[in-house]
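#struct-queue
[09:14] JT: dropping the first one here, sequence first, then the structure tokens:
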Amino acid sequence: QVQVVQSGGGLVQAGGSLRLSCTSSGLDFGYYNFGWFRETQGKEREGVSCITFENAYKFYADSVRGRATISRDSANNTVYLQIDRLKPEDTGMYYCGLSHWREFCTVDSKEFKARYWGQGTQVTVAS
């Protein structure tokens, strides 16, 4: 049974940092790209970052480039997203998605073909 479990997030002051985790089980971790997406009320789902299955490429949305770092730990089947210098506009529900290695790793939410999603985790950045 495939499980994708997210952790991290919460309430953070502007200027602070957070790290989100996405841990998978029941599948071959090395076969999947991992993408982070966020949803804010009234807006379409926005891509934040993506890391390829072989850890060769990392992609970031313009809104977080220079502040975010995505990484993967194959020993623990976990992908991390750290965002520094948080802004109130980073507030949203963050989702981790897994796409098969044959699919694109992209921050374009329309092009990212997720086979699995995490349960979501809320991030609130207070100004």
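[09:21] JT: and here's the second one, same format:
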Amino acid sequence: QVQLVESGGGLVQPGGSLRLSCAASGFTLDFYAIAWFRQAPGKEREGLSCISSSDGSTYYADSVKGRFTISRDNAENTVYLQMNSLKPEDTAVYYCATERLGPDSSRCKFGWYLAEYDYWGQGTQVTVSS
């Protein structure tokens, strides 16, 4: 059974850092691009970052560029999102997602932040507050 499990969320002060993990079970991440999203109460889901498995290409939303870094460790079957210089507006539930295995599943698609994904984790809460 394909599963994605996020962890690493919590309460952090403005300016602080967190590292989120997206661990895969039931499949190997070697052939999948992984995207991170977040959703704050009353707001639409926002695509944050995507990392390809084919060549390691990374993509970021403008709102997090320069502050967040996505990476992957295929040996650990895990994708990470390092979040620095956190702001109160980063408060949200954070999700990772991927699509069903296919000829293009290893690459972040054009418009990855709007693409449909087949598998989602349960989310991890990030709260940035003093």
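[09:30] RK: nice, looked through the second one.
[09:31] RK: The mean pLDDT is 95.
[09:31] JT: good to know. Residues 48 and 105 are 18 Å apart (CA to CA).
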